[in-house]
Specification:
With 344 residues, the chain is α/β, with parallel strands linked by helices. The chain folds into two domains: 228 residues, NAD(P)-binding Rossmann-like Domain (Rossmann fold); 82 residues, UDP-galactose 4-epimerase, domain 1, CATH 3.90.25.10. 41% of the residues lie in helices and 17% in strands. The protein is built from eleven helices and 13 strands. The longest helix has 21 residues. The radius of gyration is 19 Å and the shape is globular. The model has no long low-confidence stretch (mean pLDDT 95).
């Protein structure tokens, strides 16, 4: 009998790619999404890739009554992977209460449901934003969690604390927080990828939309940082590599291979890439010259961060396989596909 995995935010960017990897590994997948920043048709595209259309339940996790109703109807759930959250750093600075309410209430409702319905394993979509601006690079899991620069980052810090405390009190809960660095790219089929509504908050969709002619120009926020070319540095990893890590984390919990009830892992390449280097990579693989201009710094941005992924490499047996250029190429193929299909 197939093990049942709940993927919240399952029609979103990372959730959809993780659903693909889970289905290909033989799990049964149920998606939960309120479609705030995604489309229901994504479930069908997951089916095109895998041959199995996952079940999609559309409701908001902040609605505890609907969540309880869902779990009463869906029995024998082995694990949950929780992606559902508002996720734009810049937007969170302008809408802090919305971010705290959505990201934390939904998490607490899920943890309550785990206890109530005897679900033992939980994988949390966390973020390198919990580190703020690290004093030492590359950053390890032992680095002190710095005061968050954005409300989004703060929801991830508080979320981790809530999960850790819940796992400490309830020994039946086993949880892993995966601290992502910067996911980019799309599935090689070009059937799923990052599809923000409105103006993109993340760099790569803004790059691809500018290249396609949807945006007049790309803004580079600041060129006066203490970095080799003055632009911010991030650790960009391919979304399929990131998705694979969730499957490994779920298996670790299900198979009782976790060392503690609560564990944390960095997921990144270990390579710092500046915004201007990312632009160059895209231009190289696409053959398109991007129009961009340097503007002032953006609130909530840190100067530079990249991962030390050695703990995940060692404990999970996971490492990134795709290069920056490969990730950019898939992002560009996805952009062209969605415009051809007129998905927006």
């Amino acid at each position: 009998m197939k093990k049942k995995i709940i993927v919240t935010g399952g029609t979103g960017y990372i959730g959809s790619h993780t659903a693909v990897e889970l289905l290909q590994e033989g799990f049964e997948v149920i998606l939960i999404d309120n479609l705030y920043n995604s489309e229901a048709v994504v479930a069908e595209r997951i089916g095109e890739i895998t041959g199995i259309v996952p079940k999609l339940e559309v409701f908001d996790l902040c609605d505890k009554e609907k969540l309880d109703k869902f779990f009463k109807k869906n029995k024998d759930i082995t694990a949950m992977i929780h992606f559902a959250a508002y996720k734009a750093v810049g937007e969170s600075v302008n809408k802090p209460l919305e971010y705290y309410r959505n990201n934390l209430v939904s998490l607490m409702n899920l943890l309550d449901a785990m206890k109530k319905f005897s679900i033992g394993s939980f994988v949390f979509s966390s973020s390198c934003t919990v580190y703020g601006q690290p004093e030492k690079l590359p950053v390890t899991e032992d680095a002190p969690v710095q005061p968050a620069i954005s409300p989004y980052g703060n929801t991830k810090q508080i979320g981790e604390e809530i999960i850790r405390d819940a796992a400490m009190v309830n020994q039946n809960i086993k949880a892993i927080s995966l601290r992502y660095f910067n996911p980019i790219g799309a599935h090689p089929s070009a059937l799923i990828g990052e599809l923000p509504r409105g103006v993109p908050e993340n760099l790569v969709p803004f790059i691809t939309q500018t290249a396609y002619g949807l945006r007049d120009e790309l803004k580079v926020f600041g060129n006066d940082y203490d970095t080799p070319d003055g632009s911010c540095i991030r650790d960009y990893l391919h979304v399929v590599d990131l998705a694979r890590a969730h499957v490994i984390a779920v298996k670790r919990l299900i198979e009782n291979k976790n060392r503690n009830n609560y564990e944390v892992f960095n997921l990144g390449t270990g390579i710092g890439v500046s915004v201007l280097e990312a632009i160059s990579s895209f231009e190289r693989v696409s053959g398109v010259k991007l129009k961009y201009k340097i503007t002032g710094r953006r609130g909530g941005d840190i100067e530079k961060i990249w991962a030390d992924p050695s703990l995940a490499n060692r404990e999970l047996g996971w490492k990134t396989e795709s290069s920056l250029d490969e990730a950019m190429k898939t992002a560009w193929e996805w952009e062209k596909y969605i415009r051809m299909k007129k998905l927006t």
